[in-house]
Each structure stands twice: as C-alpha cells, then as structure tokens.
Amino acid sequence: MTGNKAVAYKGPGKVELIDIDYPTFELKDGPGVNPANVGRQVRHGVIIKTVATNICGSDQHMVRGRTTAPPDLVLGHEITGEVVEVGPDVEFIKVGDICSVPFNIACGRCRNCKERKTGICLNVNPDRPGSAYGYVDMGGWVGGQANYVLVPYADWNLLKFPDKDRALEKIMDLAMLSDIFPTGFHGAVTAGVGPGSTVYIAGAGPVGLAAATSAQLLGAAVVIVGDLNADRLAQARSFGCETVDLTKGGPGEQIEQLLGVPDVDCGVDAVGFEARGHGTGAQEAPATVLNSLMEVTAAGGALGIPGLYVTGDPGGIDEAARKGSLSLSLGTGWAKSLSFTTGQCPVMKYNRQLMMAILHDKVHIAKNVNAKAITLEDAPKGYAEFDAGAATKFVLNPNGYLS
Ligand SMILES: NC(=O)c1ccc[n+]([C@@H]2O[C@H](COP(=O)([O-])OP(=O)(O)OC[C@H]3O[C@@H](n4cnc5c(N)ncnc54)[C@H](O)[C@@H]3O)[C@@H](O)[C@H]2O)c1
Ligand SMILES: [Zn+2]
Ligand SMILES: [Zn+2]
Asked: Of 228, 227, 194, 200, which Cα lies nearest the Cα of 212?
C-alpha cells in the first residue's frame, strides 16, 4: 500500500509530520470526525496526489490553540493536485487531471449549493452549514497537507486545469485558487470595489495581499493596505499598493494624508478575531478591525469581511471573546448604512475566472503574495516562520511537482 505522510496539529504551537492511511472512498473515524460522518460512503469522490498544498492564516488559528481543534487533526484545506483514482460514481473527472480543489466542501445538491453558496453547503457537515478539509468543526474531512487526500463530490467540486503542461508552468499562481485568491477577490467584490474605487484593506497577510491584487484587477483607483508588520507592508508596496503603518495609530489620519479625505469607498477585513489594537506595542483587541473599518468606510459603503471570527476561542482576551462576542460599535455602521458580508468565501463563484486571468497573464498572484515552495518535512518550520510574520505564502510540495 502507498504511504501517506501528513502534517498534523499536535497541540498549541506544535505541528508534526505523521503517517496516516492512504485514503479510501469512505470517511473513517479519526480526530475531529463528526460521529454522523463516520462510515460515510464517498463513491462520488476522487483521490488526489497533491501537487501543492498551502499553509493559511486559518490554519494558524488552530495551531495557536485558539480553537477547539483536537490533537492529531490533519491540516490542510488549500489543495491542488493530480487525480490518481476515481470513485465509481464520478463521471467527468479522469485519472491524470490536474485540478484545483476549492477549500469549501460542497455537495452540489442542496438549496445553498444550487444558489452557489458553497461555503454553507447543508449536506457535508453534520455540525453546521459549511465544511472544509482539515478544519475544526467542519465535519472531519481529512486535510490535504499530505501526499494523498480524498475529495468528495469530485465532479462538482474540482476545477480542472485545461492544459497540464501550461498548468504546471504557472502552478505557483494556480495554487492560490483553492482559497486565498478567490477569498481576497470575494472580499473586494463584497466591499463593492469597481473601477475608480478607493479601498482600504486591513491586514497584509496573504489574504490581504490577495484582496489588494483583486482590487487592482477590479479597477480600483487607490488600494491602501494597513498592518503592523513592516515586511508585509513592503510586500504590498512591491506591487503598487499604498500602505498605512498601524503601529503609528489608527488608519483614518494616514488615509486622509493619502487621499485628502478621511474615508474610502470600500473596506476589507483580512485580519479576523486575532486582531491587534493600533499603536506601538498594541495588544490583541478583537473588534479593532471591524470598528476601524466602520469609521473609515464612507456612508453607503460596504465591508467585505473574509477575516475569520469564531464561536469559541479558548484564548480569547475576556469572557465575552471566549464565546466569540465582540464589542462592536454597530451604531456607527448603522448610521452610515454600511453593508457587511461575512463568512467562508464561496470559492467556486470565482475560481474559474481567476484561473483564466492567471493563464492569460493578467495577474501575478504568486509574486504579489511572495509564494515560496517548501518540502512537507519543512512544514513545521514554515508554520513557525509564518506565525512569526514572514511576508511569505508557504506552499508545501509533498510529491516533488514544484521545481
Ligand atoms: N473567509 C474565508 O473564506 C477565509 C479564507 C482564508 C482565510 N481567511 C481568514 O482571513 C484572515 C487572514 O488570513 P491570512 O492568511 O492573511 O492571515 P495572517 O495571519 O497571515 O494575516 C493577518 C495579518 O493581519 C495583521 N493584523 C493584526 N491586527 C491588525 C489590525 N488591527 N489591522 C491591520 N492588520 C492587522 C497581522 O499583522 C497579519 O499580518 C484570517 O483570519 C483567516 O482565517 C478567511
Ligand atoms: Zn486558507
Ligand atoms: Zn450542498
């Protein structure tokens, strides 16, 4: 039998390479698998040999011990791979296809999937709407930071790249289609970005940089990115963004210096619940980003909120935060008639179009997020460097496809 090495969460601050079973067309019991999903038959699934599988800020919430993820949970929801086996009910995807796997697992049959709301599929996670590979409370589908992974409802979920050789030439860019590029794009679209918009994006991590790239692609006049991390701000400037340094205080004043007015048309939260306050030595203050976005977004504007918020956080700063309750100045948002879009990005809504933009050289997402391939064995190091704030998107290379 073929071996299968995988990156597992071992406890706060700790990930390790472990040996797991080669997948079969059945969801077996294991860490984090919902009992109602144990034994589920996946005749509609395929087995993927991973070509690229990226480390995400969403993984870091678990690895930092900020969720209820159990030890030995296999990580990895950003997966690109080659199909090596197809289940008996798969009709159109074939062995040898190279595909992007949307991080949302969706059935293609429920009311929400039919409305393309694949981030809240009703049939894949017995706990709640919405699911993902290798993630706490998401049904228990095994993560893809491994040599091989099972992908359910393959005909529906997979985005097949049209030409294998061309795909492998641009694979570092295409690897961003499983999550951060569509997620950043969704953040920009739901913030209302269009030609001539002024945009403020909180967070210069990979999702923030993907949102900035997306805002440029959508024709924004000015894209401003804010963070407290100088290297990540420099990365944003490397492809034409303006930046605000939040160690110097809130974004409003610096936005005014850039634009001549203190507000922007569109606001994006690419930070989430582990947000820090503004100013030097600022500590965690989970409502900071949402409150500052309500302040700096012009009346009638919209906030795209890909940044993740949880319903339970063992490391929350107070009793309320531990239950996911934040102190929002919603009155500010209400008075300005702001709209909000939260939740998982429905990747399938955007991934094909963004693939075309990549294949036809209209966008260079891998360069903009500074994507870097590392071996599966180096995953613990990648996690540590990413956690320390490296201006890098780490892409694991478990099977040697990435040169
Ligand atoms: N909605 C979705 O579908 C989806 C998909 C992918 C990721 N996410 C979420 O998006 C968020 C960003 O992901 P990432 O991979 O870029 O994570 P990341 O942790 O690498 O980046 C977050 C950045 O925010 C900065 N930051 C902290 N406080 C700030 C503040 N007050 N203002 C501005 N910046 C601040 C940090 O310094 C860091 O650079 C995470 O919460 C992640 O879980 C959501
Ligand atoms: Zn992700
Ligand atoms: Zn569904």
From this structure: 200
269 in any annotated domain: yes
Domain check: are 53 and 173 in the same one?
A: yes
Which structural domain range is residue 296 located in? 180-342
Write the pLDDT tens digit of every residue in 151-176.
Answer: 999 999 999 999 999 999 999 999 99
What is d(CA 388, CA 224) in angstroms, rounded to the nearest whole number?
23
Are 63 and 141 contained in the same domain?
yes
Which pTM was predicted? 0.98
* Residue 403 domain-assigned (yes or no): no
Residue 263 has pLDDT above 90, yes or no: yes
d(CA 102, ligand 2 centre) in Å: 10
Query: Is residue 263 a part of any domain in this protein?
Result: yes
Q: Look at ligand 1, atom 25, and give the residue with the nearest C-alpha.
A: 203
| Any ligand 1 atom below 6 A from CB of 207 | yes
> Which ligand neighbours the alpha carbon of 387 most closely?
1
DSSP 76: -
C-alpha distances in angstroms, 368 versus 158, 216, 291, 298, 360? 25, 12, 28, 28, 17
Verify whether ligand 1 is closer than 6 Å to residue 204 (CB atom).
yes
Task: Decide if pLDDT at 84 tops 90.
Answer: yes
- What would the mean pLDDT of 34-42 be, rounded to a whole number? 97
Q: What is the model's pLDDT at position 403?
A: 75
Q: Which residue has the tokens 């087995």?
A: 47
Q: Is 300 helix (H, G, I), strand (E, B) or coil?
A: strand
Pocket test for ligand 1, best of 135, 207, 365 (most atoms within 8 A of CB): 207
Across 188-202, average pLDDT: 98
58 CB near ligand 1 (under 6 Å): yes
- Residue where a domain terminates, one of 297, 316, 342: 342
